[in-house]
Known about the structure:
By secondary structure, the chain is of the alpha/beta class. It has helices spanning 15-21, 40-44, 51-62, 68-78, 81-84, 114-117, 120-130, 146-155, 174-181, 197-208, 211-219, 232-251, 271-282, 298-305, 330-337, 342-355, 362-371, 379-393, 399-415, 433-441, 451-462, 489-497, and strands spanning 3-5, 30-32, 92-94, 99-103, 136-142, 161-168, 188-194, 222-226, 261-266, 286-293, 307-309, 357-359, 372-376, 421-425, 483-485.
Amino acid sequence: MFYESTRGGLKSKSSAEAIKMGIAPDGGLFVPESPVKLSPDEIYGLVNLSYQERAVQILKHFLDDYSMEELVECVNLAYTKEKFGSDDIVPVVKLNENVHVLELWHGPTCAFKDMALQILPHLLVKAVAKTGETDETVILVATSGDTGKAALEGFKDVKGTKVIVFFPSEGVSQVQKMQMVTQEGNNTYSVGVNGNFDDAQNGVKAIFTNDSMNDKMSKNGFKFSSANSINWGRLVPQIVYYFSAYADLIKTKEIQEGDKINIVVPTGNFGNILAAYYAMEMGLPVNKLICASNENNVLTEFLKTGVYDRRREFKKTSSPSMDILISSNLERLLFEITEHDSWLITEWMKSLKEEGVYTIDPDTKKKISKNFWGGFTTEAETLKTIECIFNEYSYVIDTHTAVGIDVYDKYVISTGDMTKTIIASTASPFKFNESVVKAIFGENSINNKSEFELLGILAEKCNLTVPDGLKDLDKRPVRHKTVCEKEAMKSVVENILTI
Length: 499
């Protein structure tokens, strides 16, 4: 399997090269040059396998320059009972006859990003060795909250790497911020940015594609890579859990072989739902991919109109990991839908950068609408959904999962489609405990209480256990205190690397 840039500048790169580079020099994202197709027998053969075995069976098609022994090693190091709390890794919880929740947050940082960022460091280290690279790898990350901590934790003390994370200083929850600024490890750096996630993401992209910066890096023995979902090595592990969820539904006799399912994904940067799209293209029986947004509903409008317009008010919401106006991975979808038309993709992305908007052609919009449905949720609806799910099912969900469930309800009302559905639950309710406690127990329950006090309250009142990764966060020493303007991000990287 070889990889090419969505903007046409690079072709025929191995998966190891694509993972090592993270983003192509032309600013494009790496995608497989040819599709992967699984037979029904291969899909149904996953049913009686462990999660680790399922992962190897999926990843081997995309990472065929890795030996089976190497893949098994990477998978077994990433997905352990110790890190994920049980052998299930990604439990599927039945909410009602039609709806199942895919809990993707049992990893060490309590968010779905662990599913990729526990394996990416192992894939990257092997990629560096495979390609004969001798420079130290600098992982550069922009985060809206969860990716940052997951990257810091995944790459902590990994030999031959440094990891630098930029996050919006006032645009993440207290818990998310403390997870990042208290991060241990002799190769980890967490930096606040005075701006929003798009500012951080644009700054990271600009550093990646700055020729003089890359020359300076090379002269000093460094090379950039990424742990954002712009890195194919971040995205490809996410394909696995959709196949795993389908296999689990067959195993528990909730569906039969060949039955179609819907998949609902609360979406910001479009990577998680893109992984579901790749699973569908590989042969997973999917009826509809439902893209759920919060009040930053640029994707909802795009799916309905074919116009991507980031020229709007940026809203800080209770689901901050989705507070994004530039969904980077949409570029990959457009590249696939247009049958790898890099010229067209380059024009659209240029228009987005320079004018803040682009419009796709009617044929491309029609093809997208065949597979995707988009909706969004208001802040009030998000909190009401958390309350309703708790009252009806005694099940506690976070704000992002609530967005997914509310948009799914709107989809059913709009279409009448009662196909069995998997809803991707992307974070533990403990990560966004203030909103969750307020939704379930009322405004008075959070008065004069910090997020760290609310961890205990949520656990006690809902008969839950605070995850190890969040216990006593407020008592840990703050190790990372740098905050910068968005224009100064390049200088911060230079200072960290002393180049």
